[in-house]
Amino acid sequence: MSQRITIDHRSAPALRHPEKAHRPDNPIQRKPSWIRVKAPNHPVYHETRALMRDAGLVTVCEEAACPNIGECWSQRHATMMIMGEICTRACAFCNVTTGMPKHLDADEPRRVGEAVAKLGLRHVVITSVDRDDLEDGGAEHFARVIRSIRQTSPDTTIEILTPDFLRKDGALEVVVAARPDVFNHNIETVPRLYPTIRPGARYYQSVRLLDGVKKLDPSIFTKSGLMLGLGEERMEVAQVMDDFRIADVDFVTLGQYLQPSAKHAAVEKFITPDEFDGYAAAARSKGFLQVSASPLTRSSYHADSDFAKLQAARKSRLKESL
After folding, report:
1. I want to staple 9 with a disulfide (CB 3.0 to 4.6 A). Which of 2, 66, 261, 293 is the partner?
2. Is 60 exceeded by the pLDDT of residue 156?
3. Which residues pair with 86 in a beta bridge?
4. Are 283 and 254 in contact, with CB atoms under 8 Å apart?
5. Is the pLDDT of residue 287 over 90?
6. For residues 133 and 100, is the Cβ–Cβ distance under 8 A?
7. Mean pLDDT across the stretch 124-142?
């Protein structure tokens, strides 16, 4: 029988999230029965963890307290987080540490490339913290990581999950020129909730970023996702999906927001599996190549198999258009 994992950072919220220390506590609700994950006790999980430690790499799986870490790491799937573990943003939902980041590690691209080769990955996901302190937002560092993986693992497909590069002219062009296979940037929530949930970001900047990828290189798959349960309305989610389609986004992910600590935004609602099925049906009707919607869906969850489905869906659609 699967075990329920409770990830609780309430013991030291002021250390990890000093910017949230003044906020009133939002009690963490008991999770419903349909949100269950296996405890991370598989031998391969520990092998993957050891490899990340030995290579001095950071993973979003740990930093964001992902509930799927046991399953993914047991299959040697880890989403590597580059440019350090300290973010310049202070999103109300995020468990990544906020503060002033350290200098970029020039050797990190090489270590990421070597780790991907050692894991023997068919598909890898690379993400990062926001680096508003850098002139290009870290775009060239992303490009160097992509090139390093191409060199060590030429058959590995590469998915990147980037920041919004807000006010970083030319950054998107640098990343797209490195030609990742999938360019992911998460919208996270509906526009109405941005001031409280994602205050450092701008909704339409994120939409323009996704649209810009397709304008620069239509062959790159684009992907974005939303967390549900933050107080959004169904029609607002539908409008975001429509904005995605206008930007020609290929793949949409929808998952349940889970509150990392009492200092983070509260869960307003636990979305039922049936409701997720309804959202998935609505997304498919809008013409996305790929849809993933479930309580435990996350951006990089099952990313390798989803990429294969993306390729197959594109081929099928092209065939139908002939």
Report:
1. 261
2. yes
3. 97
4. yes
5. yes
6. yes
7. 96
pLDDT tens track for 11-70? 444 456 777 777 888 888 888 888 876 655 666 666 666 666 666 666 655 555 566 555
Q: What is the 3-state secondary structure (H, E, C) of the chain?
A: CCCCCCCCCCCCHHHHCHHHCCCCCCCCCCCCCCCCCCCCCCHHHHHHHHHHHHCCCEEHHHHCCCCCHHHHHHCCCCCEEECCCEECCCCCCCCCEECCCCCCCCCHHHHHHHHHHHHCCCEEEEEECCCCCCCCCCHHHHHHHHHHHHHHCCCCEEEEECCCCCCCCCHHHHHHHCCCCEEECCCECCHHHHHHHCCCCCHHHHHHHHHHHHHHCCCCEEEEEEEECCCCCHHHHHHHHHHHHHCCCCEEEEEECCCCCCCCCCCCCCCCHHHHHHHHHHHHHCCCCEEEECCCCCCCCCHHHHHHHHHHHHHHHHHHHC
Q: Record the pTM.
A: 0.86
* Token couple for 53: 């430690």
Say how many residues make up the chain: 322
Residue 271 corresponds to which amino acid? I
Spatial contact of 92 and 264, defined as CB atoms under 8 Å apart = yes
Q: Is the dihedral of CA 179, 174, 186, 251 positive or negative?
A: negative
Burial bucket for residue 99 (CB in 10 Å: 0-12, 13-18, 19+):
middle
